[in-house]
Amino acid sequence: MLDPMRRGLLFVCALVAALSGAGPAAASDWLPHPADATWSYQWTDSAYATVATTEKLTVKEQKGNTFILAWTTQDLGNPDGSVPTAGTMTFQETTTGLFAVDWSSTPPPATFPILCSSAAQCGNSLSSALYNLVWGSRSPVLVQPLLQGVSWGSTGGAQNDVTSGSDYLGAEQVSVPAFKDPVVAAKVRTEVTQAGALGDPYGSGIRTVWWAYGVGPVKIEFQHTGGPVTTVLLTGTNQTPKAPPTDVDYFPLVKDLKLNYRWTNTKWLKKPSVQQVTIAQVANGSARFDVKHLSGPIHVAGAYGFTRRADGITNLWATTKSASLAKFPALGPKALPKGKRRHFATPLDLMVYGFNPILPGDASAGAKWAAQVPSRDWSVFGVKGDTTVLGVRKVKVPAGTFQALAVRTTLVQDGFPFGSGTRTMWFAPGKGLVKLVFRHGDKSVSTVVLTK
């Protein structure tokens, strides 16, 4: 690495992000990056950069699910005493969120605190708008989807020696010079901790970022431990704010959440099967749901794995053991031997049957997706069909009355009427599934309701 204290030289920090669960790129308008996008930011620091510095950001390169933003202060009319800076930062979009994976820039001013254990070979800086954005939280910078109550831990710094905890505080209106009127922005508060650096009080503190959908960060406020405050404001851009996606959590992954369900079928399960679902483990946007028998003819114990990513809620795996007095018709697919075919033993089996996702990343009314052939789900279920988000509907079940997101799926399993039909599900904020009605091809109807 080049010496960051030598004038005119670049310091480069090549970062390898351990992207747990990273999958196909997830397009996001939380930081859009069309080729012609530009942003102008003005920033100050109450102790170390009291003269305002204006930077211009552009998109330098895009490749696959990575993109590079470049910034400069050159030819922007910055006054004497501002901070001359130029550099690039590489971002990677994943289904878990946005990561900053590499950066390169001119060194910070010698008057700034040293954010390493020694001045030599220090790849840390807070002397630009983007550095203040990703400091302590480059892995990830922002999680997806951004839902009410979501919190996450992250790391940052050249050596991953800076830690942070972030909380999404909801959406609010914020005024910045770039726009005539206030814009709706997602507010993210991050508590950053650095220990062992010469300037670690400055590297620690509380940072708040306001993200405007369709634009990117529009305001950053970093309250450093010890008193200094860095403020970054968007002063101009050719990007246009958009209405953000819903932040309502219709499928909460909350440890120890318990849900009691009653399941009946008009022909095959007239005596209700009552079962309890408990979210037993939660980590990195994934969870294990445990199911146990409470009453009725189906004695069952099961476990299911779900994950939440930018592209929606996906069922990853399922395992059950059951003894049942209820006899259901056979399910396919024909391609699998009878011993390998799924069967319905719990309400969750009815919910995950067919194809993923259970809910999409964009849960707005009219969102639609279809079964993929070939795919893992096709190999397991052999089901064709499509799903449509109907929108928010009022639904009443024994557990209460909810404004729930209704989702309807058509299912066709060749040669198996019981595995075909129309399924409608209702998902309520903070609860998840509250009702399911499956009108099977054999004319029977399965109904699941939340009772507690």
What does this entry look like structurally?
The chain is mainly beta. The protein has two domains: 11-237, outer membrane lipoprotein receptor (LolB), chain A (Clam); 258-450, no CATH class. Helices cover 4% and strands 50% of the residues. It contains three helices and 25 strands. The chain has helices at 129-134, 347-352, 376-381; strands spanning 11-14, 38-45, 49-63, 66-72, 86-94, 97-105, 142-143, 151-156, 162-174, 183-194, 205-212, 216-224, 229-237, 258-265, 269-283, 286-295, 298-309, 312-324, 359-360, 368-370, 384-397, 400-412, 421-428, 432-440, 445-450. Strands 1, 2, 3, 4, 5, 6, 7, 8, 9, 10, 11, 12 and 13 form a 13-stranded antiparallel β-sheet that branches. Strands 19-18-17-16-15-14-25-24-23-22-21-20 form a twelve-stranded antiparallel β-sheet. A hairpin with a 2-residue loop joins strand 21 and strand 22. The longest helix has 6 residues, at 129-134. The relative contact order is 0.10.
Q: In the CATH scheme, what's the topology name of the largest domain?
A: outer membrane lipoprotein receptor (LolB), chain A
CATH class of the largest domain: Mainly Beta
Q: From the 3D coordinates, which CATH architecture of the largest domain would you assign?
A: Clam
Count of helix runs: 3
Major sheet:
13 strands, antiparallel
What oligomeric state is this?
single chain
What are the salient characteristics of this protein?
452 residues; mainly beta; outer membrane lipoprotein receptor (LolB), chain A; 2 domains; 13-stranded antiparallel beta sheet; twelve-stranded antiparallel beta sheet; 3 helices; 25 strands; disordered N terminus
